[in-house]
Amino acid sequence: MKRKILKTISTIDSLNMEEIEKLNIGIEIQDFTEPNLSLNEINTIIHRYKAKLKGFKNIKALHGPFLDLKPSSPDKLIREVSYNRYLYTINVAKELNIDYLIFHSQINPYLNQPSIRKLNNTQSREFWEEILKEVPDYKGVILLENIFEETPTMLKELIETINLPNVKINLDIGHANLGKVTLEEWIKELKDYIFYIHIHSNDGLYDNHQAPALEKIEELYYLLDKYNINPVLSLEYNVDSLEEEIQKYR
What we know:
Radius of gyration: 18 Å
Strand order of the largest sheet: 1-2-3-4-5-6-7-8
Shape: globular
Helix content: 40-55%
Number of strands: 8
Order of helices and strands: EHEHEHEHEHEHHEHEH
Number of helices: 9
Strand content: 15-25%
């Protein structure tokens, strides 16, 4: 099975288009996770990416802002700030013709009282229904990424409550490794919604974003085949030789 492979790009200055095109892979843009970009800086980055990506045929993804944002917050002002931050990011994605747009799930696993969980999920659905009405011409897939969840249960409840055809899951296997269940359990539970995977590794204690061992890549491929899914694979860690690293995935 042919795998769809991307490399995360922390800033546009680190983007080597010649190398990306030579390796025939896609990119995930992460400049816009920076929370304090000015409007001028945002416009400059967009303009530079437009120039660099002209004629680029492979998959393009973009990671949105996430720090201190909460679309389902009971605080109206927090929801408003989150809405504005998400909306500008969707408009950036539209301008750059992005295929996949990533936001964190913003799930707090300790707010697990059933009525609070239900309220959070319902308010998230209302948030996405409202914001997507403002950008009906954005045709990409929006992805919600696990971050602090210890099992796939709450993320599955969230995505099934939102229940929109263009809102799916980015399974971050580094974050999942910090949880309480196996990678197989994550994939088994979420397989119908996983369209994208962040690949990186850690020591089980901290979110180190290390390169995974070859046996971890083999385990991931085994599970993807077992559950018959072929999501986009985004390498979210630094490498000395991208060409050598990509060979591990082919």
